[in-house]
Write a structure and sequence with these properties.
Elements lengths: L1 H9 L1 E14 L2 E13 L4 E9 L2 H14 L2 E2 L11 E5 L2 E7 L6 E2 L2 H9 L5 E7 L3 H13 L4 H8 L11
Parallel strand pairs: 7-8
Antiparallel strand pairs: 1-2, 2-3, 3-4, 5-6, 6-8
Helix pairs in contact: 3-4
GO biological process, one term: translation
Keywords: Ribonucleoprotein, Ribosomal protein, RNA-binding, rRNA-binding
Protein name: Small ribosomal subunit protein uS5
Length: about 170
């Protein structure tokens, strides 16, 4: 139990959106809420979760729990991503481009929340198609999952690392 509380302090949480939804029943409408939450930890650790409940605070709590379970690790190149990627989900597409130091986070609402929680400080992002917050979050995560480090790419291609000295 103590380990869980330590982890809780080191994570950043951002609520991207809260929706009130209704279900029509015999006696009228029953309202409930859903909350889309982004959670980020150390550099390159980020997750998202959708919580649903009859109360806003319960929905946020459930979303945070799901986000902790869905955390992924991102390959970073300093303060930015190593190369340009495009993520797709539904009718949404997100183009993520690395940026030079000092550029900052140039991105819209949902995508900006992910970048800030993942501690990616220099990036340019463009949303194309549907701007539904849930679709944008899933498209952004699709793009971030495509990122690989230089070592991973070399291993997949089956190339050896060659020494950079002039003598060999």
């Amino acid at each position: 139990m103590a380990e869980y509380k330590k982890e809780e302090k080191s994570l950043k949480e951002k609520v991207v959106t809260i929706n009130r939804v209704s279900k029509v029943v015999k006696g009228g409408k029953r309202f409930s809420f859903n909350a889309l939450v982004i959670v980020g930890g150390e550099k390159g650790q980020v997750g998202h979760g959708l919580g649903k409940a009859n109360d806003v605070s319960d929905a946020i709590r459930k979303g945070t729990g799901r986000a902790r379970k869905n955390m992924i690790s991102i390959s970073l190149n300093g303060r930015t991503i190593p190369y340009k990627v495009t993520g797709h989900f539904g009718a949404s597409s997100v183009v993520l481009k690395p940026a030079s130091p000092g550029t900052g986070v140039v991105a819209g609402g949902s995508v900006r929340a992910i970048m800030e929680c993942a501690e990616i400080n220099d990036i340019v992002a463009k949303s194309i198609g549907s701007t539904n917050p849930f679709n944008l979050v899933c498209a952004t995560f699709d793009g971030l999952k495509q990122l690989r480090t230089e070592e991973e790419i070399k291993r997949v291609r089956g190339k050896e690392e060659k020494s950079e000295s002039l003598g060999t």
